[in-house]
Amino acid sequence: xxxxxxxxxxxxxxxxxxxxxxxxxxxxxxxxxxxxxxxxxxxxxxxxxxxxxxxxxxxxxxxxxxxxxxxxxxxxxxxxxxxxxxxxxxxxxxxxxxxxxxxxxxxxxxxxxxxxxxxxxxxxxxxxxxxxxxxxxxxxxxxxxxxxxxxxxxxxxxxxxxxxxxxxxxxxxxxxxxxxxxxxxxxxxxxxxxxxxxxxxxxxxxxxxxxxxxxxxxxxxxxxxxxxxxxxxxxxxxxxxxxxxxxxxxxxxxxxxxxxxxxxxxxxxxxxxxxxxxxxxxxxxxxxxxxxxxxxxxxxxxxxxxxxxxxxxxxxxxxxxxxxxxxxxxxxxxxxxxxxxxxxxxxxxxxxxxxxxxxxxxxxxxxxxxxxxxxxxxxxxxxxxxxxxxxxxxxxxxxxxxxxxxxxxxxxxxxxxxxxxxxxxxxxxxxxxxxxxxxxxxxxxxxxxxxxxxxxxxxxx
Length: 461
Ligand code: PMP
Description:
Mean pLDDT: 96
Low-confidence stretches: none
CATH topology of the largest domain: Aspartate Aminotransferase, domain 2
Shape: globular
Structural class: alpha/beta
Distance between the termini: 43 Å
Largest sheet: 7 strands, mixed
Number of helices: 16
Oligomer: single chain
Number of domains: 2
Strand content: 15-25%
Helix content: 40-55%
CATH architecture of the largest domain: 3-Layer(aba) Sandwich
Bound molecules: 4'-deoxy-4'-aminopyridoxal-5'-phosphate
Strand order of the largest sheet: 4-10-9-8-7-5-6
C-alpha cells in the first residue's frame, strides 16, 4: 500500500473521508498514518511528521503512551462493557464523574457521558429543553451561537455550528438557533475600534438578538471560550464578562464548549478559568482521554440537575442516553490520562512552552503572507492574507492555506488550514526545542509558498 514516490498513497481505497474534497481526494489519495510516538506520527512509507494539531486538537499526553494502553487493557479484562441505564453503573464512570465534578468549577455538580462532542452538544440541547419544560417554560427553547462556531455535525449540534460547509448543503440549521457575530477582532472590528468597544458592540448585539426573539423564548448561549475550528479566535479580554452579564439579565443559560479548550490547552485546566466564565453547563471531550478512546462529558449545575430530576420523577424516566454512556473502558482511560496530565504537570507545560510557541510564531508577523498571529498557550492561529495593509483575503479564499497545508507535509509537519488561517495545537507534552523545530518547518513552508504566490502574480501580469 502506498505510492513509492509520494507521501500521498494512490491506491484505490474505500473510505468517504470527512471534511475532504472528495474529487480531489480521488486524484491525490490519502496519507496513511501508521503509528505515533510522542508528538510525532509516521506514515506507511516511514515519513515522520510533527503532529502540530495533536490529531484533531485531541492528544494531550502524546502518541504511544503505554499507560493508557494498559489502563484500557486492564479494564477490558475486568469488565469490558457495562451501561449506566436503569439504576446500574460501573466503577470507572462513577470515579471519573466524581473527579470531573471536583476539577471543574464548583457550580458544576453532575456529569452525563456520551461518545462524542456532537452527541454531548445534542444532549445539552435536550437537557436544556427538558429542564425548561420542568420549569413550565415550554417556549424557552432557542439557542444562540456564533458565526464561525463549531459545535458538532449531527442535526442538532450541526445547527449550533455556524460554518457554511457544515450547514449549507445539509439544510441546517434544523433546531431554533440564531448566530451572533463571533469575536474575531482582526476581521470584524471597525476601523479604530478598541477591543473593549468591540466587546461592548458584540454584547449589545447579543442583547438585541435576545430582545428581538423575546427572552421568554431564548434558552441558552453556547460558545467555546476560545474558538478553535472557527479560526483560533481568542476573544477580547472583557468579552466573556459582558456576554455573561447579558445572559444573566435574561435568564439565558451559558454553555461553555471546552471540547478543544479543556484540560490545559490554554495553560489553565479549563478555559473557563482563564476567561472567568461561570457556566451552567460545560462540555468536555478530546483531551479527556487524549482521544485514545471516544468519550465526552456534559457537566451540569445543581439547578439543572434538580430540574431534570424533578421532571423525570414526574414522568417516570429521563429518556435520554447512549448504549455507551459511561462505558467503563474510556472512563478508565480518562482517569489514567488525567493522572498523567497531573503527574507530568502538563497544564503548566502548556503555559510555559505555550509562551515560547506564541513568541516564536509572532516572529513571523513580518512575513509577507502573514496578516495576524494569535493564540493562547498551546493553541495558535496564523492568518494569511493577500495584502497585509488592507487585510485583503486571497482569492479564492483557502487556496493559499491549502498550499501551505500540503507543502508542510513535505517538511514533516501536519497542521490544519482553516481557510487561509493555519492552526497549531500540538500535544501538551511538546518541548521548547520541538516548538522551535515546528515553527522553523512552518517558516520554510511559508517562504516556499510566498515564492509560489509571487510567481503566480508575475505570470498573471
Ligand atoms: N465542539 C467543539 C468545540 C469541537 O471542536 C468539536 C470537534 N472538533 C465538537 C464539539 C464535536 O466533537 P465530535 O467530533 O467528537 O463530535
